[in-house]
Amino acid sequence: MTTVASGIARKRKFNTSEILLKISMYMVIAVVVYWLGFNLVNDPRAFIQVSINGINNGLLYALIALGYTLVYGIIELINFAHGDLFMLCSVFSFAILTELFGAKAPSTKNFALLLIVLLLTMTFGAIVNVTIERVAYRRLRNAPRLAPLITAVGMSFVLQWMGLKWVGSVPVNVNTVLPATRYQFGGIEIAFKTLVIFAVTIPILILFAFVVDKTRRGRAMRATAQDKDASRLMGINVNQTISFTFAIAGAAAGAAGIMWAQTIGTVSYNLGFQLGLIAFTSAVLGGVGNLYGAVLGGLLVGLIQAFNDGLAVGLGQRWSQTMVFTILILLMVYRPGGLLGQSSQEKV
Amino acid sequence: MTNLQPAHHAAGVNNKKWAIGFSTVVGVIFLLNVFVLPNSNTQVQRFFNAWFSLNSLAEIMIWILMALGLNIIVGYAGLLDLGYVAFWALGGYVAGWLMSPFLSQFQVNFFGNARVGFDQGIHFHVFLVLILGGVFTAIWGVIIGGPTLRLKSDYLALVTLGFGEIIPQFMLNGSNIFGLNVTNGAQGIGGLDQPNIFGYVMGTFALPQKFLMVSLMAGAMIFFSIRLRDGRLGRAWLAIREDELAASMMGVPLWRTKFSSYAIGAVGGGIGGVGFAILVGGVYADRFNFVISIIILAMVVLGGMGNVWGVVVGATLLAWVNSVGLVQVGQLINNTFDTKFNFPSYQFLLFGLLLVLMMLFRREGFLPEARMRMVMNEEKLEDLEKVTDDTKIGSH
After folding, report:
1. Residue of B294, B383, B393 lying closest to A73 (CB–CB)
2. pTM for the predicted model, two decimal places
């Protein structure tokens, strides 16, 4: 539909509104650069420290954003339920690892259990996500745009309710199996947990990138994303491919869920809404539909949030959420296609 | 184009009919609460207080107002707005700023009805506040819609969701914006003026009169919804909802039309916000959360997107369920079967499942118009040439 519509639009010369838009964009960038530069000069050590915390969160955002971007890439649906799937996975990991296995303190045995439960949670996420797709979204694949979106919102509520029934309405503290050790590197502290996040998320991200880029399945996914009918004619099982995509997305959410529960140390039923929005902002920032964009976007959003919360000159944690949405809205105005994506502006 | 007015001969008749019906219902409830209930025995009083308290009925009217406002955006123009609560909040704060002693830097009284001893702050007449509330939210509708309406419709859903979060958060944190107390933070703004309508002052206990006032507002919204829908702009909205490309070929300016639907839809939220603030006598930031946006959306979806009567019925039903129905029915079931379900905790499941099941099995709602039914079930029509997606995964 996009291509046909854009054919009609006449090419116009630069008009004043476009120039104003450009100027205001550069002004926004200048303000951000000035803010960061000022803080860097002001206290370089704190700046690096805060950056590390930002990358820590950013990697988790990237894992969730991956799910949004994969699903959007293949069926053009903003899966509003994805954030809540992440929440449900974090609750699941808490229920299995902490409650069922009783792994509440650092020990070798508990590390092994952590790895097992990581796999279990990823499987759980994949199963739930595939089920949601099978039950709700598949029937609506050819329906008007509004229908699957509203269904996704409804699903998000259903998942939230499950979380509410599972852990209750107040946030629950998780006794993590990861020690609170901190290492000093030239005046900069790096927590052991941060290292674990690096060690777990980066291989998973590389694995998923490999699956989408290099394997037969991945090729089928990319083909389905481009043209479902043509892929079907080429012998690709479209339904199975879409299910597989949802499985990957769910597994990523599962990994992010258990990592969140173990490193941040709390689970609560309304976590998904917040994190889902942050992750979607990351996906849009990187260019929705683009795998590497999601990772880049996640890292950037994590960094910006950390700068805002942690730097001496910043708005502070109170405005953390507002900051993320402001990024989202500014993106919509200036670069709806994201940093790595093509322009997705519909000419109207 | 002026001589091509659509043949809506029946419209006038229908307008009279619904107006009579609506006023009858409102009048009966009003008279019942003013004359009958105070004189009836305690058992009857208790029943009405539990199941159909006037407070909940007045709130239902606010919900109808809200749902009809959202219906203009979602039902008429086919744009998904997931942050409608932002308009409710904005409207509420307009009432808070313009009808209370809160902004004590100023001392303005424009036909207002300031309480004795609370002369500071801004005190406008309630009608003016309603108008300003509508205008203010319309401006915000323009600010939100302006940049996003050029994008794909899914992005609008997301940006509205963002605004639906930012604005209440701003209200919550707004007790210190560069040293200014803009919103009084989590405490909110209480002690609103008692509206003075043609010399009649609505006190704290004038609930039947307040009910009458919000019912009038809801009635006006129904009227405008119907008239707008049949007018030139309304037909343009419906055309866009059904097929953007075809509509633009027929000379409908897409962006401007979407834009107007967003701004006009916002007005409903703003006026409803002012009405609600007057009803509860204040505005409190922690009320405005995402769940409200979704409940309003569920109202529109349940009744039938685009159909005014469907939306009114949907809003009435869900607002009642949400405020008293879930608690009362739950108690009834628990008492009858001796169970201990915590029914209000099923609110999320109820609204979530409602949205999913409606979309799966009855997309057009329970009281659809024939036109909407066709739109929502388009896939069942003969449609061989499906336009396919052109998004790609990965940078290839």
Report:
1. B393
2. 0.83
